[in-house]
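new request in #modeling-help
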Amino acid sequence: KNEVEQSPQNLTAQEGEFITINCSYSVGISALHWLQQHPGGGIVSLFMLSSGKKKHGRLIATINIQEKHSSLHITASHPRDSAVYICAVTRGSNYQLIWGAGTKLIIKP
Amino acid sequence: DTEVTQTPKHLVMGMTNKKSLKCEQHMGHRAMYWYKQKAKKPPELMFVYSYEKLSINESVPSRFSPECPNSSLLNLHLHALQPEDSALYLCASSQEEGLTEAFFGQGTRLTVV
């Protein structure tokens, strides 16, 4: 079993829909990261969380430390949100990211 | 400036060539990282530099040689690569090695022929 599990693996939705991507982890963590990777390759860090909730524009990330679960929400989704969304966790003091497999999101116009 | 700049964006090299990948950041970050990413897989950590010193080498073959000439620059020297080394090579930086957010470059897509 992977230490970081994401669901769904693939998600296709219509423009405007509310999107939720889930991440569960089985290890103790110091922080959880949500990242976005477009087909071109570059990775953008969206959020780094250790508790609670963060919001940036149309993106919201939540984490429940007791349940070892995090969600990434996208409101009013747009075709430019199409990308792979990756959940990763860090443990201890080193930036050793433990990566989830990613969720490929496609938003259709 | 919150960018990590990688050059070149694409590189095709023969197995006998020597080439270098470059990474630059001007955010004052003291930790810099090289990752290798194969298609449809998460990135794999290769090297970590902290305050210009090699901090982590994830058992990477010696045909990959990292160099950190100063706090803003990170190079990856390539020599005698194999076709299976073809991948996306990503550079990242963070304020410190540890619990700080990382910024990634756009990557160099390397093809070894």
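bot summary: The first strand of chain A starts at residue 4 and ends at 7.
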